[in-house]
Amino acid sequence: MRAQFVLSEIGVGLRRNLTMTFAVIVSVALSLALFGGSLLMSDQVSTMKGYWYDKVNVSVFLCNKSDAESDPNCAKGAVTEDQKKDILSDLKKMSTVVQTVTYESQDSAYKHYKEQFGDSPLASSLTPDQMQESYRIKLKDPEKYQVIATAFDGRDGVQSVQDQKGILDNLFGLLNGMNWAARAVMALMLVVALMLIVNTVRVSAFSRRRETGIMRLVGASGFYIQAPFIMEAAVAGLIGGTVACGFLVIARYFLIDHGLALSEKLNLINFIGWEAVLTKLPLILATSLLMPALAAFFALRKYLKV
């Protein structure tokens, strides 16, 4: 097979169907950009889970005098010194689950509240004796929260047991939902891209039906006839894949490092690095090359019957 002939046929085919070729490039670029974005979003959620779950605390809040008057869990009164000692002793015995235990007094809780919510109208009316003492527990495994809840929830002197992981689970559930929505849009765009590729190949084959007919008459092999059409689709797809890679690199550069500079503004989020982006680019390029080529191959088998 002469490479020059194949390359010239590819150029002719792309120019003849310039509008449809452009539509293929755009649809492939958008679908693969969403594909890459969904993969990166999954990596980001996994990174955030690893970062934040490692910092999750379980808080055992103790009853104060105000709770004794209004909270059914504290109907027996405010926590006593003996009860606090018993709770701390039991926490230390749970060494297989508990990593560290930190006591927070009412004064410390009041100070932290003022630091975080000092501008709130409620802050001016609060006093230290209205705040709750608590034990902040760092677990060896964040999934073992239920062990602490079962042991201390409803116990005398304990107002409530709260797990920060529940709050994070809601956040990660939202992020995962957004990720699946992006994947659904990506799948739709991928179907559109495949339909455009098939139609583009068929239009190209129809416009050159006399040439392919002559080639069949002179004994050209099926692969020799199909090769220019398959490579046209592959080239268009590869251009779209390259554009998709460019989108991802630019998005990572401007959203996280520069432009919006989210890495500087959102210090509490551990963003994925460049290596996560760069490892996805070969997969996107390979998909952009193989997907159109296979779609063209199966479309031509039926259309050209060679």
Write the SSE topology.
Layout: H1 3-16, H2 18-53, E1 57-62, H3 65-70, H4 81-93, E2 98-104, H5 106-117, E3 134-139, H6 145-152, E4 158-163, H7 164-207, H8 209-217, H9 222-257, H10 262-265, H11 274-303
Antiparallel strand pairs: 1-3, 1-4, 2-3
Describe the structure.
The mean pLDDT is 79. The chain is rod-shaped and about 100 Å long. The protein is built from 11 helices and 4 strands. Helices cover 69% and strands 8% of the residues. A 4-stranded antiparallel beta sheet has the order 2-3-1-4.
The geometry reads as: rod-shaped
Euclidean distance between termini CA atoms: 17 Å
**Helix run count:** 11
SS content category: alpha+beta
- Poorly predicted segments: none
Widest sheet, order of strands: 2-3-1-4
- Rounded to an integer in angstroms, the radius of gyration calculated over CA atoms is 31 Å
Oligomer: single chain
**Percent strand:** 5-15%
Q: How many beta-strand segments?
A: 4
Largest sheet: 4 strands, antiparallel
Order of helices and strands: HHEHHEHEHEHHHHH
Mean pLDDT across residues: 79
Give the proportion of residues in helices.
55-70%
